[in-house]
Task: structure prediction
Amino acid sequence: MSVQFRVNGKEVEVEVEPRLTLADCLRHQLRLTGTHVGCEHGVCGACTVIVDGAAVRSCLILAVQAEGAEIVTVEGLSDDAELTPLQKSFRKHHALQCGFCTPGMITTAHALLSEEPDCDAARVREVLSGNLCRCTGYIPIVEAVLDARAAYRDKERASDRAGGGRS
Amino acid sequence: MKLPPFDYACPATLPDAVQLLASRDGDAKAIAGGQSLMPMLAFRLAQPSLLVDLRKLAELRGIRISEQGVALGAMVRWRDIEDDARLERAHPLLKAAVAHVAHYQIRNRGTVGGSLAHADPAAELPGIAITCDAEIAVVGKSGARVIQAADFFQGALTTALAPDEIIVEVRLPPWPVGRRWGFEEFARRRGDFAMAAAAVFYDPDAGAKARNAHVGVIGVGDRPLRLGAVEELINGRPVDDATIAQAEAAASAAVDPQDDIHASAAYRRALTGTMVERALRRAAA
Amino acid sequence: MRTVNSLVGSPVERVEDLRFLRGRGQYVDDVARPDMLHAAILRSSVAHGHIRAIDVAAARRLPGVHSVITAREIGERVPRVPMRLQPLPDFEPFGQPVIAETKVRYVGEALAVVLADTAGIAEDALGLIEVDIEPLPAVPDRHASAQGASLLFEEQGSNLAIKFHAVRGDAAAAFKDAPYVRRERFRTQRHMALPMEPRGLLAEWDAARGRLTISGGAKVLFFNRRTLAKQMDLPESAIEIVENDVGGGFGARGEFYPEDFLIPFAARHAGRPVKWTEDRREHLMCMNHAREAECDVEIACARDGTILGLRGHAYVDVGAYMRTNGAVGARNVAQFMSGPYRIPNIDIDVALLLTNKTPVGTYRGPGRFETDFFRERFFDMVAQDLGLDRVEFRRRNLVSHAEMPYAIATITPYESKDELDSGDYHATLARCLDEIGWSAKSKLAGKLIDGRYHGLGVGCFIEGGAAGPKESARIALEPDGSYSVYVGSSAIGQGLETAFAQIAADALEVAIDRIRGVFHGTTSYVSDGYGAYHSRSVVMGGSAILDAAEKLRAALRAAAADRLGCAASEIEIVEGVKAVGPRGKSIALAGLAREAIAAEGAFLNKKHTYTYGAHAAHVAVDPKLGHVELIDYVVIEDCGRIINPRTVHGQAVGSVVQGLGGAMMEHLVYDQDGQLLTGSLADYLIPTASDFPNIRAIVLENYPSPINPLGAKGAGEGGIIAAGGVMANAVADALRTFGAQPRELPLTPTRVWELAQAGPHKA
Result:
């Protein structure tokens, strides 16, 4: 079947089998291999991407179900020039070791902070409890996310000033 | 763990969806959020020949709150319940229970209808449906019908839903002012299925005695359970330490859990009592 | 080290992060070839049985299937997975065939490999293969194994692979007149490393050149290449094993598994690249398991608490085969039962018993996590018996600084003498108690506050590191004046590139950005390499880099002397950028030669480093839920010279949480038929972000190791080792009024609830 959606701002059209998950479609057909697959049964969170503004597990969505969706993967969060404030915070707090869970952590945290830039540590922990990490013990990840809140608050204020704001 | 091969359809209308589901001799399956079905497919525990995607069906959307109670469309996501401030008043027990459902990403996609149809005995929404005497409205080849929650859940992962039937909505009776309630759950980790959980409510009379007590538990049987013996014990009495202690013992006695990899039967039996006890304490507080 | 030494010891941000954070890491499943086939592996669903027939005809007929490989296609003799460590002849009969030939011995053992155009079709085909297995009685545990009614290897006549024996002094004499003796049994459960990235391999066979290239290597590339070369009858030089980014190792990833033969074989068989990506279910039943150990031990003490002796028996369930490093954990159970303590007389044997379960291998802190639980739990019981404070009991018996180096028990066969190298074990214990506020918190112990009992636990550990024999490094001065560093070590997510860049930059006296890259992870960069295990990379690879840097500087001086017309001894290299000769004549290193100038170095070592320290925990136990909340946890670890405090601290915290998983939740459960009941991540539970938020790690460098030029010791395992014993001690302390004495892990809600069922204890 043919399916069309936008990934990281770019319109794409791919030919897929109905059984192909969005994760496999992104990784193997669109070669966006930053989205990782750690369990294929919706537990580890490594495959988290943002679909229409919401963080979801791309191993639990069929590619054909993404028809018309706006998808953001880890590759879509930063450009060549610079890391985002969230990514910088991860580096500063040593919130990654092997890097395998990192894309899922980053996309999840980005979705969270975009919606809730004032979330507290308990909320961060609760949200990240859906993403498994075997290296860090999570503590530096939670610190990194908390430390990145300010950047999202500033962003929100800037867009409020510009007459934007979230719907 | 690649999914087995299947066909896929995404009908625009409910009758088309029913038609498609009926077209494969019971071998077609509806997919809503897919958060329970996709893992089943990944492990090849389900191998339907056709998946019918319900995402375009407007009839299945929305939370309606009226004098008749709360109606949750089958495609309502956990996230929608979380975000709906009206439910704080309209159905606080529902809101409290749903807060325990799975994780952030799952809550962005998992649906009310999907959870009911999957019928995991440790899932929260089936427990709320049982506890609150919910009605489940479905549509199939032979038309629409309403199934009482008590008749809907027939065993682990087994429901009264015919292969061609689609859940349209679940209706929870109105929530009166002054109702006392509590929800208590214990899981091994945040977001895991409950080891046991209890949902309780009652309506205190003028003398602060309980009437209309409802006590439901999940995670301790092959389906969500109502504990009639515990309800009888509470009705007509003040919900004080003595009542709560008896309710705890009665709840433990009323269930017959099995040993499994996460807990012994004896532990789960005791935990059931503890959950009922703590939920009642919250209700009475 | 040199005087210019600004990078080693500073918390440099990791170079690896830049690619990982952007999603630009390249893990093996990210690699693809246009014409590659996908492999899926049919695995036995029967734990023990004789293979009567495997019918692959229907699978071969499925459109999109290229071929199906069974033992028959492999040839006359199916290769065995070798023992990498302790390669004793005793283990040979128990080696694992890379694919089941006549018998299956665990659920998950490979029976057939399907190659197809897509991974989905390959999996579809698995369902079409018909396997006829005559079931035999499964051997589900060490008791059935020892009983021997059912034998995994009939011709061997027993399920016992070997017994190791650890001896120091004269235990029999010590026990003879001992004033106090106590005997106890303890048990740790089967669990596993579970790195977040499952395994994967991409094998490419170049028939024209007779060359094989394999992506997906990790940990021990050179050993695996030697093994594969023998098995496939190729010269080693015809095989290149490439390490991609690796999503966690923890001892398990990168060992030679059956697939490490099957996938390269399949590529040669098919004449096309073949990719295999392990799925999580396969991972849980095929990757090395670990930690299933039990002991029955006796301790002898003087009345003042001085330990006189330790003796007894230990039993390790090693699963169905002996493969690669499968004996290490068991061996360590015997040799390290004494840990950091002065136990003059030891006599402990350990039986390695085969069962119809997944074979075991090392997992971070192998044998040490187990024995720390046994020993630290035992010590709390003994101190209580003797009416001694448990901290005082430990102080009385910890090896002191003055006793270093301290000889520990010798293990046979494969005789290994070992000694603790350096450190002040008393100081780390004192610091740990201080940090957690032990004396103030002691008032809470056993108290019921808001429905929960509070308790404290403490324990000490040692962590071995720096396994020899050797590591290699090569450094090249590039024509542009930058330096490339090549090592035989492996990166498994531990931040190796950053640490090595720090060491190299200091050794070359240059800024870190002059290090063009740290290149590791193929068998072609250096002549020989040993890899990443036994906390050895920094010590061994780092020391090899020092040697290479020294040799490179000599080569540069020689080259500069040539150009400046003076003796090499007259040349001084300044800031790593220019060579200065007599009378102020100088030449820039950039452009010194048209070709890169390189030097290879090595570090050889027979001794081990011992990182050491202490952990303490404060818990609150809800007796009705059996839930244990971790209120505070402190780990103090002295790991000698620290290269990068940021990464060492990160590993310490991560290691603790992994250990808490083993202490509280992780368990690979089997039934009596040898079926694995925890085959998904919904059933095999590991810690999440909300489970253990309060952990503090303090890493010290008070006692550099005397046995390597860096002064470094292995790090990264200390956090995990003491976690089981410390948590169990804290729970016992909290539930002291119930007389609770945990003797088994994990401390699941059911188990903790059971401990509190005894009713308040009337002592």
